[in-house]
Specification:
rod-shaped; mainly alpha; 2 domains
């Protein structure tokens, strides 16, 4: 590239003197006649300017644009990986939410089953307790009734014995005692204890 710039600089220097003369002649010729030589001078000047710009600024511009491209590619790569990671997290979160809703439904069903089981167990326990209380009441009632009957019988027997003792002590005579003993002995001799 240096060779080309050197050649262009030599050509421009050689042509510059002629271009200056042509520019002066064109000025003298007047406005109506345009100068192709002047146009060519400006075109060569522009080409030289662009060539110098590419020569001095080209490597820096290439390096800048290459660095910028690397930066953009890196940022794009990071953005793509972040997007993929975010989508993966979103998919995992959605799957987890679906699993949680299924697990929540399962837990609700299990809780409902356990509640029904416990309610049934409490109902069975209440029925058996009520039956046991009914049996205990019946047993207590019959025991109390029997105890009351025994007490009444004992009291009646005691009252009858007291009444008999009083009646006997009042009305019992020695002749009655002999007759009673004779009647008892007769029963013993006949073998009939009644």
């Amino acid at each position: 590239m240096k060779k080309w710039i050197t050649s262009a600089a030599i050509f421009a220097a050689a042509f510059f003197g002629y271009a200056v003369q042509a520019a002066n002649a064109a000025e003298d010729a007047g406005e109506g006649h345009g100068s192709w030589l002047l146009l060519m001078f400006f075109a060569i000047n522009f080409i030289l300017f662009v060539g110098a710009l590419f020569y001095f600024a080209g490597p820096a511009l290439r390096k800048f644009f290459a660095d910028r491209a690397v930066t953009i590619r890196t940022a794009l790569s990071r953005a793509k990986s972040a997007l993929a990671e975010a989508e993966d997290l979103a998919n995992k979160a959605a799957a987890r939410m679906a699993a949680l809703s299924a697990e929540l439904k399962k837990l609700a069903d299990e809780l409902e089953e356990e509640t029904a089981f416990q309610v049934g167990k409490v109902a069975d326990l209440a029925k058996s307790t009520a039956e046991r209380i009914r049996r205990d009441t019946e047993m207590s009632k019959s025991a109390l009734s029997e105890a009351a009957k025994r007490r009444v019988r004992a009291q009646l027997a005691e009252s009858a014995a007291n009444l008999a003792r009083e009646t006997i002590s009042r009305n019992f005579q020695p002749a009655d005692q002999g007759r009673l003993i004779d009647g008892f002995m007769d029963k013993l001799g006949s073998g009939d204890p009644r």
